[in-house]
Design goal:
Blueprint (H helix, E strand, L loop, with lengths): L10 H12 L9 H20 L3 H14 L3 H13 L3 H15 L5 H15 L2 E7 L6 E4 L2 E5 L6 E4 L1 E9 L2 E10 L4 E5 L22 H34 L10 H34 L16 E5 L2 E5 L3
Parallel strand pairs: 1-7
Antiparallel strand pairs: 1-4, 2-3, 2-5, 5-6, 8-9
Helix pairs in contact: 1-2, 2-3, 3-4, 4-5, 5-6, 7-8
C-alpha cells in the first residue's frame, strides 16, 4: 500500500485546518474559536506523535480533533495511523469516509491515490457473520466486546487468525479461533452449552439411611451377651467350688482367693449383660426413629461381630 508522504504542519497548514473546522461549529454551541483552538491543539499533537512513530497515541489525538471539530482532511491522517497499526478495517473505513465527506474538495490526484489505497486494503480485510443459539449473549472479537446477540451486520476484521468469544450469565462461555483470508466472508456459530446442572439437595429418605449405627449397636449387644454369659458361668462354677469348701457358711482362709474370683466374675457378667441391654436399646431406637428402609440387608463388608473364646481369654472379632 502507498502511504502519502507526510507534509510538515506549519503555521499556514494549521491556519487552514482551523478555517476548515470553523464550518462544523453549530450555532448556540461553544464559540468557534474555542472549538477550533482545542481541535488544532489535538491535531498538532497528533502530527508530532506520528512523526515520532507513536501511532497509537497519534490516532487518539487525531480522532479527538475530529470529534471536536469534524474536518474530512483529518480522516486521512486517521487512516494512515490505523494502517501503521495494522488495523486494516479501521484504515479502510477512515479512507472511505475521507472520500465520501470530502467529495469535490478532494483533489483529483489525491482522490486517485486514496482510491488505490482503498482497493489495496480490500484484500487485507474479511468479514465474519456471527451467530449464537441464544439472544443477549455478549460477543467479543480478539478480547474486544462488539455487542450482544443477535449480531445483525457482518464484523469486518483483518485477514488472519482471530479469537471469538460468547458468554451469558448462567451458561458456559464458548471460545473459538478462526483463520480467515482476505476478502473472505465466514459464518461462525458461537453456540453456548446448556445451563450447568445445579446439584439438588437430596431430601431425607429411607434409601439414604445408613445401617452402620444399628449394626454397631447390635454388635455391642452380641458381645455383651457373650461376655455376660461367659463370666456368669464362671461365677456359678466358683460358687460350686466355694460350697464344697465351706461348711454351714463358714469358709476357711484358703478359700478367700476363690471368693474374690467369684465376685470378679459376677461383676464382669453383670457389666456384660448391661452392655448388651444398652446396645439393644440404642439399635432398636435408631431403627424406630430413623424411618423404614427399602432393604434392611446388612452390607457384606460390615459383618456382625462374633464371640471368640480361647484358653484364659474371651473377645470378639468383626467389622465395627
Amino acid at each position: 500500500m502507498r502511504l502519502l508522504p507526510r507534509i510538515v504542519i506549519g503555521p499556514t497548514v494549521t491556519a487552514l485546518f482551523i478555517a476548515f473546522t470553523c464550518v462544523a461549529t453549530r450555532s448556540g454551541a461553544v464559540p468557534p474559536d474555542q472549538h477550533t483552538q482545542e481541535a488544532s491543539k489535538h491535531f498538532q499533537h497528533g502530527v508530532e506523535l506520528s512523526e515520532d512513530g507513536d501511532w497509537r497515541a497519534a490516532v487518539i489525538e487525531f480522532e479527538r480533533a475530529y470529534a471536536i471539530a469534524p474536518n474530512f482532511r483529518v480522516l486521512y491522517d486517521i487512516g494512515q495511523c490505523h494502517y501503521q497499526l495494522h488495523d486494516y478495517p479501521a484504515a479502510l473505513d477512515a479512507f472511505r469516509r475521507y472520500l465520501a465527506e470530502g467529495q469535490a474538495l478532494v483533489p483529483s490526484e489525491r482522490r486517485a491515490k486514496v482510491e488505490s489505497d482503498v482497493d489495496s486494503l480490500k484484500g487485507r480485510v474479511a468479514s465474519l457473520r456471527l451467530s449464537a443459539n441464544v439472544d443477549g449473549a455478549e460477543v467479543g472479537v480478539d478480547d474486544m466486546v462488539i455487542g450482544t446477540t443477535p449480531i445483525a451486520a457482518p464484523v469486518v476484521v483483518s485477514a488472519g487468525r482471530h479469537k471469538l468469544t460468547a458468554s451469558k450469565a448462567g451458561l458456559p462461555a464458548v471460545v473459538r479461533y478462526v483463520d480467515i483470508a482476505g476478502e473472505e466472508t465466514l459464518d461462525v456459530a458461537l453456540d453456548l452449552g446448556p445451563p450447568a446442572a445445579v446439584p439438588a439437595r437430596a431430601a431425607p429418605s429411607a434409601r439414604g439411611r445408613s445401617l452402620a449405627p444399628a449394626v454397631v449397636a447390635f454388635g455391642v449387644t452380641a458381645v455383651g451377651v457373650a461376655v455376660g454369659s461367659y463370666f456368669g458361668l464362671e461365677a456359678i462354677s466358683n460358687k460350686r467350688d466355694l460350697d464344697q469348701q465351706c461348711v454351714l457358711g463358714s469358709c476357711p482362709e484358703s478359700s478367700k482367693p476363690l471368693y474374690d474370683e467369684a465376685e470378679r466374675n459376677a461383676l464382669l457378667s453383670t457389666l456384660g449383660f448391661g452392655a448388651a441391654i444398652a446396645g439393644a436399646s440404642v439399635g432398636a431406637m435408631y431403627l424406630l426413629f430413623t424411618g423404614p428402609r427399602e432393604s434392611a440387608r446388612i452390607p457384606t463388608s460390615m459383618a456382625l461381630p462374633r464371640l471368640v473364646v480361647g484358653p484364659g481369654s474371651i473377645g470378639a472379632e468383626g467389622t465395627f
